[in-house]
Structures are given as structure tokens and as C-alpha cells.
Amino acid sequence: MLKVMIRYSLVCSNAHEFEGWFRSSEDFDAQSSAGLCACPECGSTSVTKALMRPNVTTSESKAVVPAASQDKQLVTVPPEAREFLEKLKEIKAALLDGSENVGKRFAEEARRIHFGEAPMRAVHGEATADDARALVEEGIDILPLPVLPGERN
Questions:
Q1: Relative orientation angle of helices 129-137 and 106-114, to the nearest 10 degrees
Q2: How far apart are CA 39 and CA 138, in angstroms?
Q3: Distance between CA atoms of 63 and 75, rounded to whole angstroms?
Q4: DSSP states of 24-38 as a string?
Q5: Its pTM surpasses 0.70
Q6: Which helix (H) or strand (E) covers residue 123, if one does?
Q7: What stretches of 57-115 show up as alpha helix (H) in DSSP?
Q8: How far is it, in rounded angstroms, from Cα 14 to Cα 118?
Q9: pLDDT in tens, 33-67
């Protein structure tokens, strides 16, 4: 039996737009009112249907999905996952407490500390994937920290 899904354009309370697929309008309403629909950008569970334009394909044209909506996914957050995310936020905060943000100079500063050219201290910042790989290959201990929902605002 073929199951049909409905694609809805959605928007969160922070005006982030994304899409979600549901079996019916009632399924969206039930999941949304239970707080199971969350914005992939910020994690907000205050999500509503956005105004949608019809998707009409004629013999002269083909429907094209904009690239921006292809890379965003609807995330449902069950209560257990919310508890886990809160614990992750606490752990991340504890790791960053007392750590110096060196920004984009992270790889350089980590090397300086490792080789004794700078005082030993906890630092955090940004590094490219290539820089992170190089640090690990050089024997420098690093810990990538995840970007958690709500941190990109």
C-alpha cells in the first residue's frame, strides 16, 4: 500500500523556515501540540505552518525544490532527548568554564601551549577539519564540542 506524505513549510517562533513531512494535517497538529516538532536551527518547539505556494508542474516546467530547503530537516525531540540535550549543555558549560576563547587562532594557540611556547591553560575556539586532524596527528589532545540547539542565534 502506497503511503502519501504531505510536505509542509514550517516556521519557528524565531522566524527560521524549514520543512517537515507528515501523514496528515492532524499528524502535524498532534506532534506540534505535543512539542515533538523542533526547529533544526535553534531547537524551538514553537512551530507553525508557514504560508505555502502551490507546487504545480506543467508539461513545460518542472518543479524545482530550492537548495536552501533541501539541506534543512525537521527534527522531532522526544522528552528523553530533551533531558539529554540539557545534560550536554551542562557538560559543555563546565568544559568552557575558565577556558579562554582564542577564536580562529585555536590551532596556533594549541600548538604554542603544547610546545611550551605559551602558558599551560584551557583554551577553546574554532578550527577547520584539516587543522583539527593535523593537531591530532601531532599528538595534541583536542576535544571537538558540538553546536547545540539554541547556540546559533
A1: 10
A2: 38
A3: 25
A4: SHHHHHHHHHTT--B
A5: no
A6: strand 123-125
A7: 67-70, 79-96, 106-114
A8: 41
A9: 888 888 888 888 898 988 765 555 555 555 444 44
